């Protein structure tokens, strides 16, 4: 049968998601989050339904792998949609290092649900695809939308209201992102493991949840009014508070290396010398610099010189995931 392709960009949270609510396997977030979707860091996924297959087959960057989360999501969707009658081959390719804190699971699950929707002609609305993507990975629902996106925590136990909403599209405020890669091998503790352990053992976790939920409206306001200085303060605080809650877990979850810390200092110095830039970090040692339009190039040049930085990757903001 004909192969069908979809793409989705990675996204980076400015106000972080770190931890889950409720029991069960709906992967509901403990707090809302706010993210930007990137253009140049993307996953392209091809789905080919094949009646001759006796099970779904998944490959990532050309290597066949048994990815339980991917295969579980596909069979769960098959149970919900009669149109997904046959098994399929799923080929996923990332344009950036997998599992190194660059949100490959977010773009991966977003591209997956879009490619399945297209290949089996499910014609599911975006909110419905977002719920499936969220079950795959909490941050993935945000990659369905472009530009600036707010993921709602929701209240419902069935998760129908835990869905993303676009705040601005990628052309409305074309910020630039520079990622300093300080380590290329896969990270030690996945974000899922790290947040589950933080929830279970960190005395700071409940404070994190309370506070993070409170700053969402203010961050939304800063985005809608293009207030870069306020967005910088709120974003850096959310990232550091997320890491502080993880550092307070027992044993501590520490994602940073020495070079990560050097990058944070370099970005603060750049800001003091007049550059429009702030930092954020996720469940890995890479440092992401978010820059005002026109400031990305000088920030990239400076970060490239930080000891331990292996390379820098620059990206514009991008549109939401789509069939290609
Ligand atoms: C630090 O979405 O990878 O990047 O839902 O368990 O798959 P699961 O977690 P995941 O966590 C992302 C955590 C983060 C912050 C963020 O992207 O909001």
List keywords for this structure.
324 residues; alpha+beta; 8-stranded mixed sheet; 4-stranded antiparallel sheet; binds ligand DP6
Give a quick summary of the entry.
By secondary structure, the chain is of the alpha+beta class. Helices cover 35% and strands 24% of the residues.
Q: How confident is the prediction overall: mean pLDDT?
A: 95
Q: Strand-residue fraction? A: 15-25%
What is the number of helical segments per DSSP (H or I, 4+ residues)?
A: 8
Kindly provide the name of the CATH class of the largest domain.
Alpha Beta
- Estimate the helix proportion, in percent: 25-40%
Q: Which secondary-structure class do the elements indicate?
A: alpha+beta
Secondary-structure map:
Elements: E1 4-15, E2 20-21, E3 28-29, E4 33-49, E5 57-60, E6 63-64, H1 68-80, E7 88-94, H2 104-119, H3 126-136, E8 148-151, E9 164-168, E10 176-181, H4 191-201, H5 205-224, H6 228-247, H7 258-272, E11 277-280, E12 287-291, H8 296-304, E13 311-316, E14 322-323
Parallel strand pairs: 5-7
Antiparallel strand pairs: 1-4, 1-14, 2-3, 4-7, 4-8, 5-6, 8-9, 10-12, 10-13, 11-12
Helix pairs in contact: 2-3, 5-6
The chain binds ligand DP6.
Ligand DP6 is lined by residues 13, 16-18, 27, 33, 103, 105, 137-139, 191-192, 282-283.
Structure report:
The protein has 324 residues and is α+β, with helices and mostly antiparallel strands. It has two domains: 4-169, Ribosomal Protein S5, domain 2 (2-Layer Sandwich); 176-316, Alpha-Beta Plaits, CATH 3.30.70. The chain has helices spanning 68-80, 104-119, 126-136, 191-201, 205-224, 228-247, 258-272, 296-304; strands at residues 4-15, 20-21, 28-29, 33-49, 57-60, 63-64, 88-94, 148-151, 164-168, 176-181, 277-280, 287-291, 311-316, 322-323. Strands 1, 4, 5, 6, 7, 8, 9 and 14 form an eight-stranded mixed β-sheet that branches. It has a four-stranded antiparallel β-sheet with strand order 11-12-10-13. It has a two-stranded antiparallel sheet with strand order 2-3. Helix 2 packs across helix 3 (126-136). The chain is globular. Ligand DP6 binds at residues 13, 16-18, 27, 33, 103, 105, 137-139, 191-192, 282-283.
């Amino acid at each position: 049968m004909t192969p069908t392709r979809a793409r989705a960009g990675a996204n980076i949270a400015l106000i972080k998601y770190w931890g889950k609510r409720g029991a069960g396997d709906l992967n509901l977030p403990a707090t809302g989050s706010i993210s930007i979707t990137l253009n140049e860091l993307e996953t392209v996924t091809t789905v080919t339904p094949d009646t001759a297959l006796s099970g779904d087959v998944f490959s990532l960057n050309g290597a066949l792998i048994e990815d339980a989360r991917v295969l579980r999501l596909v069979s769960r969707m098959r149970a919900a949609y009669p149109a997904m009658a046959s098994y399929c081959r799923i080929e996923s390719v990332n344009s950036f290092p997998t599992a190194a804190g660059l949100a490959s699971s977010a773009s991966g699950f977003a591209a997956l649900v879009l490619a399945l929707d297209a290949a089996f002609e499910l014609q599911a609305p975006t909110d419905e695809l977002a719920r499936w993507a969220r079950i795959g990975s909490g941050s993935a629902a945000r990659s369905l939308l472009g530009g600036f996106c707010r993921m709602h925590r929701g209240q419902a136990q069935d998760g129908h209201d835990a869905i993303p909403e676009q705040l601005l599209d990628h052309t409305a405020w074309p910020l630039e992102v520079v990622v300093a890669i300080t380590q290329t091998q896969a990270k030690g503790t996945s974000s899922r493991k790290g947040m589950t352990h933080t929830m279970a053992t960190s005395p700071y976790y409940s404070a994190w949840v309370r506070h993070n939920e409170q700053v969402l409206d203010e961050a939304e306001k800063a985005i809608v009014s293009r207030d870069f200085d306020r967005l910088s303060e709120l974003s850096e605080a959310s990232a550091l508070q997320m890491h502080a809650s993880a550092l307070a877990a027992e044993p501590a979850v520490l994602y940073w290396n020495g070079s990560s810390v050097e990058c944070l200092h370099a970005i603060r110095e750049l800001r003091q010398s007049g550059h429009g830039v702030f930092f954020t970090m996720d469940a890995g040692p890479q440092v992401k610099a978010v820059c005002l339009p026109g400031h990305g190039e000088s920030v990239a040049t400076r970060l490239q010189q930080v000891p331990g930085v292996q390379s820098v990757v620059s990206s514009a903001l991008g549109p939401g995931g789509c069939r290609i």
